[in-house]
Write a structure and sequence with these properties.
Chain lengths: 231, 378
């Protein structure tokens, strides 16, 4: 599959030891393509977030491999992993994790600054991305003065400012009301998703299923039969 | 790295409450540390005033002398013996004692009397008014215009007072490098007038001031004086001995040390705790940075920068506050014994570095322990 973005093979991950040992992922296989918006759904404790963490280079699996654009993710040292995440993956966290003391432009610029880009150029670029997400006018305010939906858009702007190939979103609509949640996912599908990018979303929110290219249901650490959706 | 440090700077200073608390903690600690040590330095400096002002290279004294103020009279033959020693260029007597003056107003005032060798006037002060040769005039005394000068009822040329029923007259006003510790004015006269006017025990030479032929002769002079049953010290050694006396044989040194340590502990507690809380409150943000792609050494450099920036800013504010305090105090109390020395500043700097290092150590430990996965788990 020449268009493969992520290939997960036989990934296992356990937490705890002895009797308290819990198998969060049980030999999971997964393949996603560029241009896809994949939703991973399932009950709490089914291993969705663990899978998201493993495939984004955040959590080391006990077994198996993750391959992103030909890179064997977990065959890298700690610094290489950090570079991989910075260069290839954009993160949108459930609680946004924006810096309340920085302006929205500075928040968005963080990945660029970590890439050692000049401060002024980073801010300029961040303002450009804020324009894309419709928040250019809020570039100089702090996130605390923004609504939940706006904060989520800032988080998305921060995730995409470095032009990552993979965008991972953890429960992006859980802190938002239904309309805002849907508008955020609509925005992501229309403005963020393209044929050079793959978006993986972990969610409980059934209202956004309709936007997915594909929905993978997880249960008890395994992916059950995927439900195909129209891209 | 510049952008990352700027990010660290903004995260720090934009949290105004925490940053202010951190600065207050370190500023307060530095202020106390520098104030304590500079007061001590001031006390030591004033305690050695006579040694500093007279400026002789070597001082011969009784072995029991601890401070310049507590001189023990030596017989005249000591002066002759010292003059005959190998390596001595010249040696002169010095009288140093206290006396009670009866001022023209009828008020009594204690004073230090320094009696300079009649021939050489070695150790004479710099005159602001009058001529040094006037010291040979009848009943002549030179008043030192230091912080204690007003206690002589602001004397002027020709002012008179009584000293042990002798008439005395001011023939000169002098200035000196350092004023004394004990809050009494100082008068200079000749050695012979001093021992004539002031009731004295049998032996009247307080110190023999020695000039060696060369610095290489100092050791042999010391050995010869030692063999004669007395002690010879260089100027610096005498000042150090006086310092040691105040440090170790009075409570002053111990108290200052305790206060300095307490200041350090207060600073460490306030700043350490506040900085650690700051790190804890931002722990999830550091975790997010880690998940996004920040490397451990980058996060460490951010924390170290924040800690160093706070420490240095607090240090500067503390020193500034201390300087302001000393200036104000000296403005109102000219004899206020406080001296900011490089040693004081260096000591405070080292302590600030320790405070910053300890504070950041615990922060760094927490940040290194956090896993990016924790951010996903919430």
């Amino acid at each position: 599959m020449g268009n493969t973005a992520i290939k997960v093979t036989g990934v296992c991950k356990s937490f705890g030891q002895g009797e308290a040992k819990f198998d969060a992922l049980k030999s999971v296989d997964l393949e996603t393509a560029f241009g896809e918006m994949v939703l991973i759904v399932g009950p709490s404790g089914s291993g969705k977030t663990t899978l998201l963490s493993v495939l984004s280079g955040v959590l080391r699996p006990d077994a198996g491999s993750v391959n992103v654009e030909g890179i064997d993710v977990w065959n890298q040292n700690v610094d290489q992993l950090a570079d991989f995440r910075l260069g290839k993956v954009g993160f949108v966290f459930q609680d946004f994790h924006l810096f309340p003391r920085l302006t929205t432009a500075e928040n968005v610029a963080v990945p660029l600054i970590l890439k050692r880009k000049n401060w002024a150029a980073s801010i300029q670029e961040a303002v450009g991305i804020l324009k894309v997400v419709g928040l250019e006018s809020k570039a100089n305010v702090t996130p605390v003065s923004l609504s939940g939906g706006e904060q989520q858009r800032v988080a998305i702007a921060r995730a995409i400012v470095g032009q990552p190939d993979i965008l991972v979103m953890d429960e992006p609509t859980s802190a938002l009301d239904g309309d805002t949640g849907r508008s955020i996912v609509t925005f992501v599908k229309e403005k963020v998703l393209n044929d050079k990018r793959c978006i993986i979303i972990v969610t409980h929110d059934s209202r956004i299923y309709e936007f997915a290219s594909r929905i993978l249901k997880m249960e008890d650490g395994k992916i059950s039969e995927p439900e195909r959706k129209k891209p | 790295m510049g952008g990352i440090l700027k990010l660290a700077y903004k995260l720090l200073v934009n949290d105004k409450a925490k940053f202010t608390a951190l600065l207050v903690g370190i500023t307060f600690a530095v202020f106390l540390m520098v104030m304590m040590t500079s007061m001590f330095a001031g006390i030591l400096n004033h305690a050695s005033a006579t040694v500093i002002n007279v400026g002789a290279s070597m001082w011969v004294m009784d072995r029991s002398v601890d401070t310049v103020a507590n001189s023990i009279g030596m017989p005249d033959f000591v002066l002759d013996e010292v003059r005959s020693m190998r390596g001595v260029k010249y040696a002169v007597p010095l009288y140093s004692g206290s006396a009670l003056l009866k001022l023209a107003s009828g008020r009594y005032q204690g004073a230090n009397i320094v009696g300079l060798d009649d021939t050489s006037l070695l150790g004479r002060p710099e005159l602001l008014q009058g001529k040094i040769e006037d010291i040979y005039g009848e009943n002549a005394f030179i008043a030192v215009n230091d912080s204690e000068f007003p206690k002589l009822d602001h004397p002027h040329m020709g002012s008179e007072f009584e000293l042990n029923d002798h008439r005395a007259v001011i023939v000169g006003i002098a200035k000196v490098t350092t004023s004394g510790l004990f809050g009494v004015p100082t008068l200079y006269t000749t050695y012979h007038r001093a021992i004539q006017y002031i009731p004295n025990p049998r032996f009247t030479i307080s110190y023999v001031l020695v000039e060696p032929k060369s610095p290489g002769d100092i050791d042999q002079i010391k050995a010869q004086v030692q063999a004669a049953g007395y002690r010879a010290l260089t100027k610096d050694e005498f000042i150090a001995k006086i310092s040691d006396f105040y440090k170790y044989q009075t409570g002053v040194g111990t108290n200052i040390l305790i206060m300095t340590v307490v200041s350090f502990i207060i600073g460490l507690s306030i700043s350490g705790q506040t900085f650690y809380t700051f790190i804890l409150e931002n722990l999830d943000k550091f975790g997010a940075l880690k998940a996004i792609g920040a490397k451990n050494h980058e996060l460490i450099s951010m924390i170290l920068f924040q800690s160093a920036f706070t420490g240095l800013t607090g240090y500067g504010l503390g020193i500034g506050l201390c300087t302001l305090m000393v200036i104000c105090a000296k403005w109102r109390l000219p004899s206020y014994a406080s001296v900011l020395t490089f040693l004081n500043l260096g000591l405070a700097f080292v302590m600030v570095v320790i405070i910053a290092a300890v504070s950041s150590y615990f922060g760094v430990r927490r940040v290194l322990k956090i896993e990016p996965f924790d951010i996903f788990r919430g």
